[in-house]
Amino acid sequence: MNHTTDVLVVGAGPAGLATAISALRHGARVLVVERRADTSSIPRATGMSTRTMEILRTWGLEAAVRAGAVDCDPMVAIGPTLTDPATRYAHHGFPSTAESLAVSPTHLTIVPQDHTEPVLAAEVTRLGGVVRFGTTATGLDVTPRGVRARLDGGAGGTDTVRARFVVGADGTRSTVRSALGIGVRDLGGSGAYAQALFRAPIHAHLDRRPPGIAFLDHPEATGVLLPVGSGRWEFAHPYEPERGEQPVDDPARWVHLVRTATGIPDLPVELLGSMTFAMTAAVATAFRAGPGFLVGDAAHRTTPAGATGLNTAIHDGHELGWKLAWVARGLAGQALLDSHEAERGPVGRWNAARSLRRDESDPADGLEGDLGRSYRSPVIDATDDAPPFRTDRAARPGERAPHVWLGPATSLLDVLADRLTLVTGPDATGWARAVARRERRALAWARTAAGLLPALVDAPLARLELLVADGDPDGKARGVAAAYRLAPGSAVLVRPDGIVAWRHDGPCTDHDGVLARALDVTLGWSAAAQAAAAG
Which is higher by pLDDT, 88 or 444? Predict the structure, then answer.
């Protein structure tokens, strides 16, 4: 059987599911295939950053994800055992709840991946996407106009799918990456570990909430211990294979190590499984090749240190999915797709390299790296050589749009989500007329298209929303002008992923022309953006 879709996503981990959700929310047809029989059955990554929770909030999934939160303090404790007083505490990039809520409507949480993945997969299905587990995509044939792949296994048996785009979210050994001819650059490593997943009543022996991560330096049980929910814990113990050391694989040895590391000699331990892993990092040599794109571990492998891997993966998908949908629907030009490499490439490379240096502090850790990144790409109208991170959030092109409360439970980020929005200063008459004239032209185009070729109505001009800072009679937008530094006559254009794409400061004498040029750049239609894409 042959199928046709807009976006074929290979891999149903967080990166692939986030890409699918983002694309589906913007009208694309999406098929996700996953070689595993179901979502993850082990906790894997657990740290969900402030920006990740912002994304989940705009998707309406924050509460469902938080329902699986682990009862712990999101900080790092360092000491001989878990029950001993910590010799010191460190945040290791984890902001406090108060620090997050000062700049965001939400805050980080600790949630095991085997809780998060089912929530994301269910949302893909609810939005009309298809997720096929137990299915591999093979024989990927890539052309400039799209891809074709054979799907083997799963409920659909063996069939063929044609897609406008393919997204490789299939991990460190990505078959999509190989099919696209993209290489991998190894960044090195920082050790090998054996890890046990176990269940034990550790909370009953503590007089405080456990830390999100405990680095333990007991001479007989050095390692990393962390709670992963439902009474489960993970303990990672280092070993040195280059010196002939073998990883722990004896259940009795694991029980002894766990009891020693926790400082609870008679702790009942139910061993659930064990594995080995290497603390290595790597990046793909490109994040795009023609109609193929890479996200998550297929694009950038980080070590577990710093908890950036899962978050970077979800951010990749959130920012790529809508772009694929808009290009597939004719709402944007091809240059918009090149922004994936230009914008997410530096992020992935930075986070992968940074995960190897967690013993060093860096000003870009924490909220600065999570919320303060500054993009440069052909579809970002910025000319200054901005630093990669900003500590002041002022709605400059390339930056995440700042959060402002519009009501007791509504953030400006909620309003901006999934929309192309022009946010103006208090004097917005000229901009309002320009937006209205654009909408009338779009309506006239759609009516003409309907008379000539009805199918074209499915590809209208991208809808542009207007938000006037401090201009509403109820005062709901009060404070936006100050946060966005919008003087009378000024305006900023915010993309559906919450990134500021363009900014105009001061009076304007040609609102229609200025707005048209801004939209052409933002949506990849301008000659400059197209030339940059071609080059």
Answer: 88
